[in-house]
Amino acid sequence: MSVSRRGFLQGLRVGRTAEAAGAFMAARGHEEHVAELLQGSGTRTRLTPPGANVIRISSNENPLGPGKAAIDAILGKFPEANRYPFNSSPLDADLEILIAKLNSAKRENVVLGVGSQEILRNAVRVWMSPTRHLVEPSPTYDICNGQARQLAFPIRTAPLDAKLRIDFAPLLPLVKGAGLVYINNPNNPTATVVSAKALADFVAEVRKTSPATVVLIDEAYIDYASDPSVQSAIPLALSTPNVLVARTFSKVYGMAGVRVGYGIGMAETIKPLSRWRMPYNVNTFGVAAAIASLKDPLHIKDEVARNAKVREFTVKALADLGYKSAESQGNFIFTDIGKTMTAAQFREACAKQSVMVGRDFPPMEKQWARISIGTMEEMQKATEVFRNVLKPATATTAGGKL
Ligand SMILES: Cc1ncc(COP(=O)(O)O)c(C=O)c1O
After folding, report:
1. 250 C-alpha vs ligand 1 centroid, how far in Å?
2. What pLDDT is stored for residue 51 in this prediction?
3. pLDDT at 52
4. Which residues have CB under 6 Å of ligand 1?
5. 3-state SS of the chain: helix, strand, coil percent to 5?
6. Is residue 399 very low, low, confident or very high in pLDDT (cuts 50, 70, 90)?
7. Beta strands 243-248 and 180-184: pairing type?
8. 233: helix, coil or strand?
9. Residue nearest to atom 3 of ligand 1 (CA)
10. What is the value of pTM for the model shown?
């Protein structure tokens, strides 16, 4: 079937949005579609989308992208792109209400962000100061840390345990007088988890030692966790002052480019974050896609099962080469490659063979590399590259886990 650009745009006008766009892209190809849309705009056209020729397993993205419901929702909003979000439907309030409803909470318990990064950065601005420090394990996801450094706010860190899990014992003595404690569960870059009980006990201790300190629990990857001891801390946040959870649509929902995240907690905790939020920070397309995704839980279940299978394959392939990984509960693994090379050397060697793996994670960059889980086909190719790049290390271990 041939679908012209004019036909596509006409389709949008008459409301056959998703159907018209889908048919157009299928018929003409995505690159051609992008090139054609850019034609004559003075913008340099790019016929190949970035990363088309490489295996990109560097940013913990969902390799399959959003589900059909989310894509249809985005395409369906094209005709309203001229309108401000408050003149479109659904509204960002609808998304807040839906998130609240799914968590037996109210709209005032939820704040939307441009990805969960906005929640993390604003938490630093709201609760930290030159005299109210950040506490976090090391290594962990470094957005709070980076924002605190930018603002010259003090940071105190404690190491992980021997299995690369967050260790609450050395963190606890650091919390008195802290502005913010950041706990990422599962933790990026290690992909390890802490149990719901250990986390709740830690929060109770923080509340006793330093009641004004806010605990931010980042659950970007929690949908991927199958360990039965792990549960979302959202109920804890909704019933405990100064605790909030950050969530994102960037990972299991496959919408990293759409930029939608949220914070959830007691209304008094959420209120100052809402004040820092830019008006209409989440756009019309993001709101529509997030709502559609939340109504499509089956898609998430499939993605979690797919990821677990490919992750198991990848961990085993590396173990067969003699390289152990930390116990992963996420869509990425953290692998000890230190017998052969540093993370930077591994990254460069893989990049020469068109496989892009994760960045350095100090203080573990001399020994550990983070590898995101792509599709099975991508990981079959990537593990062949790993085989070429990494010298076989001695002694494999069952399952290859720490
Ligand atoms: C632990 C963690 N939190 C938050 C984020 C940010 O995600 P978002 O795309 O929602 O800003 C990431 C991104 O990789 C992450 O790894």
Report:
1. 7
2. 59
3. 67
4. 60, 115-117, 141, 184, 188, 218, 220, 248, 250, 256, 261
5. 45, 15, 40
6. low
7. unpaired
8. coil
9. 220
10. 0.87
